[in-house]
Amino acid sequence: MAGAIAMRSLFAPPNLGPTSSTGSHVPRRVRRSLVKIRAAIAVEQETQSKVSLIRIGTRGSPLALAQAYETRDKLKAAHSELAEEGAIEIIIIKTTGDKILNQPLADIGGKGLFTKEIDEALLEGRIDIAVHSMKDVPTYLPEGTILPCNLPREDVRDAFISLNAKSLSELPAGSLVGSASLRRQSQILYRYPSLKVVNFRGNVQTRLKKLQEGEVQATLLALAGLKRLSMTDTVTAILPIEDMLPAIAQGAIGIACRSNDDKMADYLSSLNHEETRLAVTCERAFLATLDGSCRTPIAGYAFKSSDGNCLFRGLVASPDGTRVLETSRMGPYSLDEMVEMGKDAGKELLSRAGPGFFDW
After folding, report:
1. Is-catalytic flag, 136?
2. Containing H/E element for 5?
3. How far is CA 241 from CA 9, 83, 245, 267, in A?
4. Of the residues 119, 128, 136, 261, which is catalytic?
5. How large a percentage of the chain has pLDDT more than 70?
6. Cα radius of gyration (the chain)
7. Crossing angle between the packed helical segments 62-78 and 204-212, to the nearest 10 degrees
8. Which of 35, 98, 157, 241 has the smallest count of CB within 10 Å of its CB?
9. What is the spatial distance between Cα 46 and Cα 297, in angstroms, rounded to a whole number?
10. How many other C-beta atoms are found inside a 10 Å radius of the C-beta of residue 328?
């Protein structure tokens, strides 16, 4: 009871003595002040009680934030209650991959380098949904989480960026190409063995700065990221898929939530782009069959052809580019069939690669 009295006294206006129902005994100046005080208290109480309806967890790089903003904007457009100020909060989480920048990803080891800490925040209830670049998401999901949503996929191709040449073929022998991706490294060296590929970590802006400073003569970046950052003016050339098969799920954004959170699952289902989800599922089935990691150059791309079928291309390679194995599949654009295509393609390449191929 004392607590209740204390709370009332905290928000009650000062006792100014008896007044009539019209407040005639209270000076007009004081009445105006009371109105302002009460209004201020009402605003403060509303602010204190207002809690974000959705907390989005994301990495803090400019690209990761651009993807979180895209997710936020789509949620606002689809649900009027989320369009209100403060309804959606973005929470930045630093991951292992963000903290260790002086080593190649392959040397750090493990899976989930860019997702583990975000998944932990999701399971602990510190965030409600997690926005990921799908190419960073391991083929297994942590128990207690689901990934029911993929946003429409961006361009899957890689961009060639150089101050000295218009294409990889124009680079002089011995030129340094910066890339942290073994997938890119193997395909570059397969076609251009006279080039040298060196480790090139950091976000998009960091890598372009290193290029400007002359650390390397060229680099490759995902065109999807450059588009989301409105930085396509930096692109020298776009590599055709035939020359540079993309990473599994490249250009796709995935959004996860807790498996027991029906409300968040409903929000996310309204944003899901099913064509993208099926393509990504096919590619990830291929990757899971190969049990791929950052130490293995693996590429794959599934897409809907003009006749409505699914076309899939898959590739595994040695990091030095001396061995590249490719395969392809075609079939109905439906979940079960596409999962089977991915698995079957993976089994074929495992068989062709032979023992020891993946023990780099």
Report:
1. yes
2. helix 2-11
3. 70, 39, 5, 34
4. 136
5. 81
6. 27
7. 140
8. 35
9. 54
10. 12
Closest CA to 312 of 324, 304, 320, 322: 304
Q: Say if residues 161 and 170 touch (Cβ distance below 8 Å).
A: no
Distance between CA atoms of residues 59 and 94, nearest Å: 6
Annotate 72-107 with DSSP letters as a single string: HHHHHHH-GGGGSTTSEEEEE---HHHH--SS-HHH
List the structure tokens of 199.
């480790």
d(CA 140, CA 338): 18
Would you state the structure tokens that stand for residue 290, as one six-digit string? Answer: 């190969």
Stretch 51-76: mean pLDDT, rounded? 95
Residues 342 and 285 sit within 8 Å (Cβ to Cβ): yes
Q: What is the pTM of this model?
A: 0.82
Helix (H, G, I), strand (E, B) or coil at 221: strand
Where is average pLDDT lowest: 75-79, 242-246, 251-255, 354-358?
354-358
pLDDT value at 163 more than 80: yes
- Per residue in 306-356, pLDDT (tens digit) is 999 999 999 999 999 999 999 999 999 999 999 999 999 999 999 999 887
Question: Could you tell me the CA-to-CA distances from 234 to 220, 247, 339 in Å, in that order?
Answer: 11, 21, 36
